[in-house]
Design a protein that fits this description.
Elements lengths: L1 E6 L6 H9 L1 H4 L1 E7 L2 H8 L5 E5 L5 H10 L2 E4 L6 H11 L2 E4 L5 H4 L2 H6 L3 E3 L8 H15 L3 E13 L16 H5 L7 E5 L2 E5 L8 E6 L3 E7 L17 E9 L2 H11 L16 H6 L10 H9 L6 H8 L16 H13 L7 E13 L2 E12 L7 H18 L7 E3 L4 H11 L7 E6 L9
Parallel strand pairs: 1-2, 1-4, 2-3, 4-5, 5-6, 6-15, 7-12
Antiparallel strand pairs: 7-13, 8-9, 10-11, 11-12, 13-14, 14-16
Helix pairs in contact: 1-15, 4-5, 8-16, 15-16
């Protein structure tokens, strides 16, 4: 039997493991699911005869190498910084590797050796990055095949709560890593190119520069800019494109409300707050406000944010219990961002019956035979439950499908790579449709950014 070693049995591995187990008889597969928690690995494999759950510490070099040496192919669903030692072991034992993470500099440095050993190190084959690459390259390649010249590419993606579970004023709940949400946009200005001009949005104004999107059947959304939209320009072959922009999708109104936290300084992760463990939510909020002998914390908050008590922004803050003097932070040596994450998790945790939703939206502007045209491509995926979420489905299924294609010799190009080649994206996008991950493409009038010219 072909042995697939999976490192990590967390939330993103649910659909991955279920898919591979469903194919295990027909494809002659045996899964080894390795996690620090044996109980978690056992839960995900569900006593399946073609699966072996094992407890494994990734930092135990001898145990890790032994597991990799026995495998036919390796999947890492661990945090990105843990992939590199696995990748080095895969080189040593001549094993292919699949991950859903961005290609790090350390991973890219292994490219030459991977090619020399005819090994495929497939990365960025999850949702975002992953499905975004594949669905974008499919349309871009089709436009080029017709002789079209790309003028505009905008790509948006967001992990949201499904409409039937959307029951708070923020129209948002944590469906993935809360810390990533709290720290979104930090670490440098967002940069992109628009109508041939480089544009930059500093963190302080990021959430007030949004673009609106309409998705049929699901209503209106907004998107704020990702930190670096230019990193895939050369990879996609779009060096000469006039407009290139990538953004994160939220429901309309979220960004304006989130900006209140940015203004107050609550998203800062650069310093530790004294006595954070015994601090109340009210004291935390007051920490960012000026002293006043008579004004309450509530009044000071409204004054500094310039909002009235009948403003929906105020209601959103009240909903989070930010002014509660009895709730304690209970986090020692915590940063403002860590405390904010704790407070938000009280209100934004998914309930047992809640479902999540993924929304992806691409815009392709191009010129063909002297005429400017546009294609909009949209995808909405809703989760089944708390285990087989939309996020787990859209991250895990492409990883699993790529793994089988590599095992069966359908993907052959060696090296450290992302899924932008037809041998990768065509079969995976086609099979994803069977699981409800379907892109609807519409021909639109090209609007661009110079409407007065038309």
């Amino acid at each position: 039997m072909k042995s697939i070693l999976i490192f990590g049995a967390g939330r993103s591995a649910s659909s991955l493991i279920r898919y591979l187990l469903s194919k295990s008889e027909s494809e002659n597969l045996h899964l080894v699911v390795a996690d620090l928690s044996l109980a978690l690995a056992e839960k995900k494999t569900q006593n399946h005869p073609n699966a072996t759950p094992i407890a494994l510490n990734i930092f135990d070099t001898e145990q890790r190498k032994a597991a990799i040496e026995k495998a036919s192919i390796v999947i890492s669903m661990l945090p990105a910084h843990l992939h590199i030692e696995i990748a080095k072991d895969c080189l040593e034992f001549k094993k292919h590797l699949v991950t859903a993470s961005y290609i790090s500099d350390a991973m890219q440095a292994l490219n030459e050796e991977a090619i020399k050993n005819d090994l495929i190190f497939m990365n960025e084959i999850g949702l975002d990055p992953g499905i975004d690459h594949m669905s974008a390259m499919k349309v871009i390649d089709e436009i080029r095949a017709k002789g079209g010249k790309m003028l505009l590419f905008e790509s948006f993606c967001g992990g949201l709560v499904a409409p039937e579970s959307d029951n708070n004023l923020w129209n948002y709940k944590f469906t993935w890593a809360p810390r990533n949400v709290v720290l979104a946009g930090q670490g440098g200005a967002a940069k992109f190119v628009q109508e041939g001009t480089y544009k930059y949005i500093p963190y302080g104004t990021l959430f007030r520069r949004t673009e609106f999107l309409e998705v049929e059947g699901y209503g209106k959304f907004e998107a704020y800019s990702n930190r670096d939209s230019l990193k895939y320009r050369s990879i996609y072959g779009l060096d000469d494109i006039l407009t290139l922009y990538r953004g994160t999708i939220r429901r309309v109104g979220f960004s304006k409300a989130w900006n209140m936290f940015v203004q107050l300084g609550m998203t800062d992760d650069s310093y530790i707050m004294e006595d954070s463990e015994s601090m109340s939510y009210r004291q935390f909020t007051n920490s960012f406000l000026p002293y006043h002998p008579t004004d309450s914390v509530e009044i000071k908050t409204r004054l500094i944010l310039k909002i009235d008590q009948d403003d929906i922004m105020w209601d959103k803050l009240l909903e989070l219990d930010l002014f509660n003097p009895d709730k304690k932070v209970n986090l020692p040596n915590a940063t403002p961002a860590q405390i904010l994450e704790k407070i938000l998790s009280d209100s934004w945790a998914l309930e047992p019956d809640d479902k999540d939703m993924i929304v992806m939206y691409h815009k392709f502007g191009y010129e063909l035979n002297g005429k400017k045209k546009q294609i909009d491509s949209k995808m909405v995926c809703i989760g089944d439950d708390q285990t087989y979420t939309a996020m787990a489905k859209t991250v895990g299924l492409p990883v699993a499908m790529a793994t089988l294609l590599i095992l069966n010799g359908k993907i052959r190009t060696p090296g450290v790579q992302l899924p932008i080649n037809k041998e990768v994206y065509l079969p995976i996008l086609k099979e994803l449709e069977e699981y409800g991950v379907i892109f609807n493409e519409q021909t639109m009038p090209y609007f661009g950014y110079n409407p007065d010219l038309f």
